[in-house]
Amino acid sequence: MHDPGSLQLRSAPLEMSPEEFRARGHETVDRVADFLSSLAKRPVTRGESPSELRRALKDTLLPAHGLPAERLLEETATLLFEHSLFNGHPRFWGYITSSAAPIGALGDLLGSAVNPNVGSSMLSPIATEIEAQTVRWIAELMGYPAGGGLLVSGGNMANFVCFVAARRAKAPWHVREVGMNAKDAVRLRVYASKETHTWIQKAADLFGLGTDSIRWIATDPRLQMDMAALRRAITADRAAGDLPFLVVGTAGSVSTGAVDPLAEIAAIAAAENIWFHVDGAYGALAAALPDASADLKALSLADSVAVDPHKWLYAPLEAGCALVRDKEVLREAFSYHPPYYHFDSNPEDAPTNYYELGPQNSRGFRALKVWLAFRQVGRAGYERMIEDDCRLARALFDLVSREKELQACTHALSITTFRYVPGDLRASAAENAEYLDALNTALLDRLQKGGEAFVSNAVLDGRFVLRTCIVNFRTRLADIEALPEIVVRLGREVDAEKRPGRNF
Ligand SMILES: Cc1ncc(COP(=O)(O)O)c(C=O)c1O
C-alpha cells in the first residue's frame, strides 16, 4: 500500500539515482557506439511483416508493474537493433531520409535531460536563443535573407506554416477571424507544379481552401514548372473573379530533384502581388554549394522557404524549418495572448516566444541537435557532405548508363532514377511499357525487403522507375558501385518468375 507519509521522502517510481543513471547511460552509449560501428555489416532491413514484428514485441497488455531499467534498456536496444530499417546504413537511399549525425543523438540526450519548453523564452532562456541562432545559420547557409523563422517537425509542417502566413498576408479580408466564410471572400488560388509534394493538398484541405483551389501547373520535359502555363492560369483565374494568392516553387522535387525556375516565378509573383513560397524541404540546402545553379540560388527571392534539417543537415528526425523574409508575418499569422500566460516582454530587449510564431504551444528543443552539428562541422563540412552526395548520385547515373540491362532516366541534385529493362526487351521497351512497369514494381518490392540496398521509386511520364536519393554521409563510391549488380541480379530473378519461358 502507498503510504501518504512517504511524501516527505518521496521517491517516485520513475526517478533514477545518479549512480544508476550513470551506469545505464554508459551501457546505452556503449551499445549505440557498437550499433553505429556495425551498421555497414547489417542488412539495411530484415523486411519483416507487421505480424512478425508484433510477435517480436510480445504484444501484451499494459504492464501492471515495472521492470528494472537495466534489463529494460538491454532488451529495448536489442529490439530496435534487430527489427529496424536503418536509414543510417551506407546503402540506404530511399525516399528523402538522411543518415543521422551521431552528435544529434547526443544532443537529444542532453536536450531531453534539461527539457526546456521552447514555447516561451522564460521557460527556455538559452534554448530559445540557440533556436534563433540555428534558424539564422540555416538561412545564412543557403543564402536566404530571413527576417524570421522557427523549427517545426518536418517539411510538411514547415510548408504549412508558410502557407498560413501567405493566406493571412494576402487574403484581403480578416481571414483569422472569419476564416474562408467572409461575405466578401473570393476564391483563393494557389499555383504549384504537378511535381509538388503532397503537402500542398494537405495544406489546401486543412486551411479551408479545399484541394480544388490548387492550380496544378504543367511541367516541361525537365520537370520544371512551365512559366507560360503559370501565366495563363493566373490570367484565367483573375478573369473568373478568383484571387491568386500563392505560388509555390520547388527547390528539389521529391521525385527527381528538379528545381523550378525560381527567378522567373519570383518575377511573376512580384508583378502579380502573389506570395512566393519555395518548398526547399529537400534541395534548398544545396544552394550553399558555390556552383549551385542560378535557379536554386534564386530561392533568396522568396517570401518564405521551407527547408528540412532532417534531410540535408543530417539531423535525427524530426526537424523542419520555416523561414520568412518579413519578420512580422509569423506573429501576424499565429499570435494570440491568452490571459493565463505572463511572459512579459521588455521592449528594450524583447524575448522570442515561439508559441506566438507557429502552431505549436509547448515545444521541444529540436534546435540543439541542428546547432551542435553546425558547430561540429561548420559551413565547410556541410558543403563537402552535400557536394559528395551529389557527386555520388552523378556517379551512379554514369554507372547505370553503362549497364546494358539498366536504363538511366534522370539525375538532379542527389537523386538518380533508372529502371531495369531485360536485354531482349530493350529494343521494344515502348511496346512493353506495362510489363516493364510491373517488372520494376516487383523488383522494387524485392529490393526493399532484401536488405542489400534500399531504394524507392518515382513515376516519370506515367512509367514506374527506381529512384535513389543520397542524403547519406556514410555512402561511399564502393556502395554505389555495388548497386547495378544487385539490381540486375534481382531484376533477372523477378523477370524469370514473371516470364518462365524466357530464354536468358
Ligand atoms: C520537396 C518536399 N517537400 C516536402 C516534403 C515533406 O517533408 P517531411 O516528410 O519532412 O514532412 C518532402 C519529403 O520528402 C519533400 O521532398
Structure notes:
The strands form 2 sheets. A 7-stranded mixed β-sheet has the order 1-7-6-5-4-2-3, sandwiched between helices. The protein contains 16 helices and 11 strands. The mean pLDDT is 96. It is globular. It is α/β, with parallel strands linked by helices and 504 residues long. Helix 4 packs antiparallel against helix 14, helix 6 crosses helix 8 and helix 14 packs across helix 16. It starts with 17 loop residues before the first helix and ends in a 6-residue tail after the last helix.
- Computed Rg: 25 Å
Identify the strand order in the major beta sheet: 1-7-6-5-4-2-3
Oligomer: single chain
Question: What are the low-pLDDT stretches, counting only 5+ consecutive residues below 50?
Answer: none
| Strand and helix order | HHHHHEHHEHEHEHEHEHEHHEEHEEH
Number of helices: 16
Head-to-tail CA distance between termini: 75 Å
- Mean pLDDT equals 96
Question: What features would you highlight for this structure?
Answer:
globular; seven-stranded mixed sheet; 504 residues; single chain; alpha/beta; binds pyridoxal-5'-phosphate; four-stranded antiparallel sheet
Give a brief rundown of this model.
By secondary structure, the chain is of the alpha/beta class.
Question: What order do the helices and strands come in, and which of them pair?
Answer:
Elements: H1 18-38, H2 50-56, H3 69-82, H4 102-114, H5 125-142, E1 148-152, H6 155-170, H7 175-178, E2 188-193, H8 199-206, E3 214-217, H9 227-239, E4 243-250, H10 262-272, E5 275-280, H11 294-297, E6 304-307, H12 309-312, E7 320-324, H13 329-334, H14 367-402, E8 406-412, E9 415-420, H15 433-450, E10 456-460, E11 463-469, H16 477-498
Parallel strand pairs: 2-3, 2-4, 4-5, 5-6
Antiparallel strand pairs: 1-7, 6-7, 8-9, 9-11, 10-11
The structure holds pyridoxal-5'-phosphate.
